[in-house]
Design goal:
This protein has 121 residues and is of the alpha+beta class. The protein is built from 2 helices and 6 strands. A hairpin with a 4-residue loop joins strand 5 and strand 6. The chain is elongated. It comes from Stagnihabitans tardus.
Length: 121
């Protein structure tokens, strides 16, 4: 199942060239990923109270085309693989139907001591 999240590009998201600064795509997909987790019925505040957090273990990104000030973006998140200890997601940033950025993100679950543990999914 693909989850969609929309966000607008604000002036603060852009660089001197007027395009989205490369690191801000990571912020956009982080917001979308948080909403994907929420849509899975996971309360991250309750999870944190149990001493568990999600962390990005690996990220591979392709910047395809630039987003610009005032663009309305859609971030699509879908699960592509899962094991007891890791989750792999594909996240695509689109303007209309045009892909601008694609990332493969591997998530793990960590205890409050920073050690890996089974995913609570």
């Amino acid at each position: 199942m693909t989850h969609s999240f929309t966000c607008r590009v604000y002036y603060e998201d852009t660089d001197l060239a007027g395009i989205v600064y490369y690191a801000n795509y990571l912020k956009f997909i982080e917001r979308a990923r948080s909403e994907w987790v929420r849509a899975q019925g996971i309360d991250q505040v309750a999870l944190k109270a149990q001493g568990l957090v999600f962390a990005v273990r690996r990220l591979v990104a392709d910047y395809l085309k630039p987003a610009r000030f005032d663009d309305l973006l859609t971030i699509e998140t879908s699960e592509t693989a899962r094991s007891p200890a890791r989750l792999v997601l594909t996240q695509t940033v689109l303007r209309d139907t045009t892909p601008l950025f694609v990332a493969e993100v591997t998530l793990v679950c960590l205890t409050d001591k920073g050690t890996p543990t089974r995913l609570p999914l």
